[in-house]
Amino acid sequence: SQTIHQWPATLVQPVGSPLSLECTVEGTSNPNLYWYRQAAGRGLQLLFYSVGIGQISSEVPQNLSASRPQDRQFILSSKKLLLSDSGFYLCAWSVLGDKGANVLTFGAGSRLTVL
Amino acid sequence: GQQVMQIPQYQHVQEGEDFTTYCNSSTTLSNIQWYKQRPGGHPVFLIQLVKSGEVKKQKRLTFQFGEAKKNSSLHITATQTTDVGTYFCAVQGGTYKYIFGTGTRLKVLA
After folding, report:
1. pLDDT for B6-57, tens place per residue?
2. Distance from C-alpha of A89 to C-alpha of A6, rounded to nearest angstrom
3. Which of A104, B38, B40, B88 is the most buried (most CB within 10 A)?
């Protein structure tokens, strides 16, 4: 069966420090991978998605970047964190299914607090 | 860009009362999905609707896709405390990406 892992689960970082969040998927090949961010009490904002190794589509211009060095690995990074980067970061995977629809399966999330 | 609005933003109900959340899109949709996020948790897929006017049921949950495929609703009959959470609709913003609605946060009072 397919599983998705995200780490770290929680982290507290000072403003201006770097960030690296990692997501890996097991049990499937060539998944579509996604990073979403959820501010406290708010909705889900799509940050990046990837349909293959090295292919990254950015949805929101900001100080975050994403990389996909391997088929089932997706990394979210920042060189210098801002206060506004605080939030709940969710990785998700999908496989294109019937009628062109993707069903997203989310990881447990990484809760980031920037101080 | 494509916008997806959900109403209401919040809903408090007494246990046993019904609950409905509505999802509205500015454009015609190819399909729509619904997810539930428990407090402190991650979104979990509930269902997908594809056909105009489609109605699907999961126990006490009824999902409906509008005839014009621009809106959808989720209705819960006789809410229970286990129904607490935020319900999101999600629409396809391209072949591979999904745009989530603003969400409706449901609180059930015992």
Report:
1. 999 999 999 999 999 999 998 999 999 999 999 999 999 999 999 999 999 9
2. 9
3. B88
* B55-58/B43-49 β-pairing: unpaired
Residues of B in contact with A21 (CB under 8 A): none
Neighboring chain A residues of B90 at a CB cutoff of 8 Å: 104
Interface contacts A/B by beta carbons within 8 Å: 64
- Whether B109 has its CB under 8 Å from any CB of chain A: the answer is no
The C-alpha atoms of residue B75 and residue B34 are separated, in whole angstroms, by 12
Mean pLDDT of chain A: 92
Interface touch B44/A107, C-beta < 8 Å: no
- The answer to whether the CB of B91 falls within 8 A of the CB of B70 is no
C-alpha atoms less than 13 angstroms from C-alpha of A15 in its C-beta half-sphere: 4
* pLDDT, tens digit (0-9, with 9 covering 90-100), for A15-68: 999 999 999 999 988 899 999 999 887 889 999 999 999 999 998 868 999 999
Assess whether pLDDT exceeds 70 at residue A100: no
Residue B31 vs residue A97, higher pLDDT: B31
Radius of gyration of chain B (CA): 13
Residues of B within 8 A of A32 (CB-CB) are 96
Nearest one of A31, A36, A91 to A60, comparing CA atoms: A36
